Amino acid sequence: MLAHTTHRPFPLPQGPWLMKQTWNDLLFAHWPVNEAHLTPYIPPGLELQQWEGTPWISVSPFLIDPLRLRGCPRLPFVHRFLELNIRTYVVNNGKAGVFFLNLDASSRLAVGTARAAAHLPYRYAKMSCHSDREYIQYSSRKQIPGYGQAEFTGSYKAKGASVFHAEPGSLLHWLTERYCLYASGSKNRLYVGDIHHLPWTLQEADLQIDTNTATRSLGLIHAYDPLLLTYTKRLEVLFWPVRRIMP
């Protein structure tokens, strides 16, 4: 992986990577949204990015298996868990990345560790995932005080066998090929974490949504069906330590 870097928009970070995750059966569901609904979430130091005048969000359910720290064997109770993330797209000093509005995980230990070490907005959720030979059935449910149940349930699958990479300069490339994440801590502190992987291997996908109150719980309003949809069978990802960049 580290020998292939020409697809990256900026060089690899200095120092050794800290963690490796393998993402399995990942769905990318993308929606354009109203800028006014997103700006309250964007911390000082980050600028909300837009594609042709409109910001986007992405919802991704997937399975992490395995997760391991560099030089360590698989960790009990945290090497395999489900995740659902909701993200948008930001830039800091010319370095484009992602900003997570929500991160659900089925492992309480993973939630606690990520919140403490990476300042990411993880929450524990009751989650399940299984395949019926055709579709992947996925469910994430959690209670939010003052709102009720935030839920994402549905089924998805790859549509056809053709695998492709997003075309540089396309909206899909802009949404997927991101190599750092930003997080906001207490006292308006801003953090960045670099990642690396090979270019996304994508397939066209089919999604049947049963319930999606996960985005609505964040005050986001969008069309029922996503405008862009892809599936990735497997992607290996390297993570470097999250570091503070301001103040």
Automatic annotation (TrEMBL):
Pfam family, one: DUF2071
SUPFAM superfamilies: Acetoacetate decarboxylase-like
InterPro entries per UniProt: ADC_dom_sf, DUF2071
Signal sequence, start to end: none
Protein name: DUF2071 domain-containing protein
